[in-house]
Design brief:
The protein is mainly alpha-helical. The protein is 80% helix and 0% strand. The protein has ten helices and no strands. It has helices at 2-7, 11-28, 32-48, 52-68, 72-89, 92-111, 126-144, 148-164, 168-184, 188-204. Helix 2 (11-28) runs parallel beside helix 4 (52-68). The protein starts with a helix and ends with a helix.
Length: 208
């Protein structure tokens, strides 16, 4: 499809297919370097066509690919650009997702580790404060549009941030709320994350 759109000079189609192929390579195959090239192509095309919706989505996906590669500063840069683009459109659904993603990147900067590694409580710092506040923004937006998935994800990330900031009792309260929501709507992967983090939190409090 990409070659077809290129051969007939359909830039709009080329941009959409490049974006979709980027998502496939990133989420489906874990090939983030290839995804970055495709998202960058999509971004260039969509900017030239002044397609603000796809510009925002391309920037968001670029941020997520760089986050997966632990390039946190670059991830933040693209997320922040995505926010500017999406705020002009008033797309609360996408905005909530980007705020949550930016919070994850800020949290990773604070902890200095890849998201795949085990995080432990530490002294609170500004990056953690910023991360938690970004997740709260995502939660407010998700609540406004009644996105239960967005709410569950944001609450889980708030709880994770509170755990990392050594606010263990706050983390338990938030994670229990997130757990109830995840169980109600059968968000199984989030449920597992809630239970795992709750177990670590109780362990840190000495409740063996």
């Amino acid at each position: 499809a990409l070659e077809l759109y290129q051969s007939i000079g359909d830039e709009s189609g080329e941009g959409v297919v490049s974006l979709n192929l980027g998502v496939l390579n990133s989420s489906g195959y874990g090939d983030h370097e290839c995804a970055i090239r495709l998202f960058s192509t999509a971004l260039d095309i969509c900017q030239s066509l002044e397609d603000d919706v796809l510009v925002g989505k391309s920037l968001w996906n670029l941020g997520s690919s760089y986050l997966a590669l632990c390039a946190y500063d670059l991830a933040c840069r693209y997320y922040e650009k995505a926010l500017i683009s999406l705020e002009e459109l008033g797309d609360l659904h996408s905005l909530a997702g980007v705020y949550d993603s930016l919070g994850a990147a800020k949290k990773a900067i604070a902890l200095g580790e890849c998201p795949s590694l085990v995080w432990t409580p530490q002294d609170e710092n500004q990056s953690l404060v910023d991360a938690i506040e970004l997740h709260y923004t995502a939660l407010r937006m998700s609540s406004e549009i009644a996105s239960r998935f967005g709410q569950a994800k944001a609450m889980l990330n708030i709880g994770l941030g509170q755990f990392c900031a050594n606010k263990l009792r706050d983390a338990i309260e938030t994670l229990m709320q997130a757990l109830d929501l995840c169980r109600t709507y059968h968000y199984d992967s989030f449920t597992i994350s809630c239970l795992s983090t709750l177990a670590k939190t109780y362990f840190c409090l000495g409740h063996l």
